[in-house]
Amino acid sequence: MYKNLIELFKENEGKGAVGAFNVHCLEMVPAMVHAAEELNVPVILQTSLGTAEYIGFETLIAAVKALAEKSTISVALHMDHCKSIEALKKAIDFGYSSVMYDGSSLPIEENIKNTKEVVAYAHERGVSVEGEVGSIGGAEEGVVVAKDAAMYTKPEDALYFATETGVDALAVSIGTTHGQYKSKAKINYELLVELKAKLGDTGLVLHGGTGVSDEDMKRCVREGMKKINVGTELNKSYIEVVSQTFTAEGVTPLTSLRTLLGPANDRIKEIVKEKASLFKL
Ligand SMILES: [Zn+2]
Fold this sequence. Notes:
Elements: H1 5-11, E1 18-22, H2 28-39, E2 43-47, H3 49-55, H4 57-70, E3 75-82, H5 85-94, E4 98-101, H6 108-124, E5 128-133, E6 137-140, E7 143-145, H7 155-165, E8 169-172, E9 177-178, H8 189-199, E10 203-206, H9 214-222, E11 227-230, H10 232-246, H11 257-278
Parallel strand pairs: 1-2, 1-11, 2-3, 3-4, 4-5, 5-8, 6-9, 8-10, 10-11
Antiparallel strand pairs: 6-7
This protein binds zinc ion.
Zinc ion binds at residues 81, 136, 143, 178, 207, 229.
């Protein structure tokens, strides 16, 4: 079934966090849905605006909906970190079930004003919205924040932002970094507990999941994270696997591309299963 975040959070209440996996190319889409089906958990497929433009909004949405509608699990399609209100309205009109407006680099009042506009447009159309307060450092597509510009989310700002905007989910900065894969993040649990206590129903979102150890991941879920994003690990692993298969001995221009891409798609499925298993309570 094709759903938004509000429905996924409701369905998953008391069961842990929902995994949100960044689609980097169309090949990854069936692998991700099939992984979630094997675990019988809901799943969020998310893209940057760049990936949506690369695949094509209509093609991507049609593919995700076709898989979702045939599936026994709930699937959401979410636009990750988008700073353009116009682009988000386009994504909503084309059929994304959820979007993230990222105004984290703006002064909070401006962030609130823009997020409210997205929430009004989205909610009228049955689409959920994620916002961001504080600033998650690091770099991935759509996000470049210098580490010294990264800022922990202040609980009072988070509560004010969530109350004013009516967002369904909120990305918080508690020590994770985008694009981190060589080392592991140091999570500020004291802050997480305070945020959870203040925010109640607004689903907290952990970004930069690749840089979080398995143990920390489980603890973040226990402490109340509702959505956990994994992007870098998928991109990185796809490159690693295709680098091997494309350069293997005996590969010629007549080799079936399917045999070269299959192992990378299989790796995506394994990663989604591994991560999603950690998100279950
Ligand atoms: Zn992010």
